[in-house]
Amino acid sequence: MKVAVVGATGLVGSEMLTVLAERNFPVTELIPVASARSKGKEIDFKGKKYKVVTVDEAIALKPDVALFSAGGSTSTTYAPLFAEAGITVIDNSSAWRMDPSKKLIVPEVNADVLTADDKIIANPNCSTIQMVVVLKPLHEKYKIKRVVVSTYQSVTGTGVKAVQQLQDERAGIDGEKAYPYQIDLNVIPHIDVFQDNGYTKEEMKMIKETNKIMQDDSIKVTATTVRIPVMGGHSEAVNIEFENDFDLNEVREILAQSEGIVVVDDPTNLKYPMPKDAHGKDEVFVGRIRRDESQAKTLNLWIVADNLRKGAATNAVQVAEVLAKKGLI
Ligand code: A2P
């Protein structure tokens, strides 16, 4: 299969290449794509070198599928051109996620809605993906009424420039800034742009995308999204109120048996999920599973995943795997 990775020189794009190789996706020809600045640059994939091409060149090469992670404006402009050329796009930007004509997919949750008509498929926001993987099996069993989430998000979610800012600050270098404030030794309660309602766009993404992926607008969600000086992955403190009561052991059992989830929940032995442990892994890790003693039928838990993996690259590759399995690419 001919596979294009648009944004192949970026953080998520290079993780996509790693995941495609690791999961043995049947790539017969790789087409790494980046901006004109990177044209001709060599990219290693499974021991072979491939030259970076521009988006226009990539369309002419007619890949079967294109994984996009090159920012919203590249996706807005180019994804439709790929689609018109018959190339299926899996897009990691926020450009198409809330478009009613586009599917927003987390394979463990709603892979079944994909059809041959889906030529541009959206990959959800990183924080949303790791949360819905956990919410889905619990919703099926106990029916979720409301979710209150606070995130602790890695700088890798912002891209190369943010990782550089953190490293520069640690080395005492006054370099380029991705954030309006110092991130090292700090916490910034501001991810993406502020909206008129006082929430950030990241917070509104978590709310709207959760409803769309779960195909249930009755689930109420409220979010506070926060950037922290961490590299390995995103963490989330999640409070979930259910329609029906639950048994804690049964909750652990359901999560442990669900696809893509690893339960790490052994406080006696100080075992709980941390971004350092999730780094480089494809699964979503859940722990600190406990009853909210202030309210009936309500659960607290802690969710961690590598935002570049399940939150972006892995999810996109898994969507491609579903398409390949269904014979849609
Ligand atoms: P380049 O390296 O040539 O700038 P990150 O989010 O980690 O900063 O990465 C962004 C990715 O998107 C990079 O691979 C970058 O390529 C790519 N990119 C940015 N603008 C374009 C564009 N107009 N066309 C194709 N790729 C682009």
Estimate percent helicity: 25-40%
Order of strands side by side in the largest beta sheet?
2-1-5-6-8-7
By CATH reckoning, the class of the largest domain would read Alpha Beta
Query: How many domains make up the coordinates?
Result: 2
Bound compounds: adenosine-2'-5'-diphosphate
In what range is the share of β-strand residues? 15-25%
Gap between N and C termini: 9 Å
Rg, Cα atoms, Å: 20 Å
* CATH fourth-tier homologous superfamily of the largest domain: Dihydrodipicolinate Reductase, domain 2
Low-confidence stretches: none
Overall mean confidence score, pLDDT: 98
Largest sheet: 6 strands, parallel
How many extended strands? 14
Shape descriptor reads globular
* Second rung of CATH, namely the architecture of the largest domain: 2-Layer Sandwich
Classify the fold: give the CATH topology of the largest domain: Dihydrodipicolinate Reductase, domain 2
Structural class: alpha/beta
List keywords for this structure.
single chain; 329 residues; alpha/beta; Rossmann fold; Dihydrodipicolinate Reductase, domain 2; 2 domains; six-stranded parallel sheet; six-stranded mixed sheet; 10 helices; 33% helix; globular; binds adenosine-2'-5'-diphosphate
If you had to describe this structure to a student in words, what would you say it looks like?
By secondary structure, the protein is an alpha/beta fold. The chain folds into two domains: 2-123 and 312-325, 3-Layer(aba) Sandwich (Rossmann fold); 127-307, Dihydrodipicolinate Reductase, domain 2 (2-Layer Sandwich), CATH 3.30.360.10. 33% of the residues lie in helices and 22% in strands. It has helices at residues 11-22, 55-60, 72-84, 107-110, 126-142, 160-171, 201-214, 248-257, 275-278, 309-325, and strands at residues 2-6, 29-33, 42-45, 48-51, 65-68, 88-91, 103-104, 120-122, 144-152, 220-224, 234-242, 261-263, 284-291, 298-305. Helix 5 packs across helix 7 (201-214) and helix 5 packs across helix 10 (309-325). The protein is globular and about 60 Å long. The model has no long low-confidence stretch (mean pLDDT 98). Adenosine-2'-5'-diphosphate binds at residues 6-11, 13, 33-35, 37-38, 55, 70-71, 74, 159-160. Adenosine-2'-5'-diphosphate binds next to helix 1.
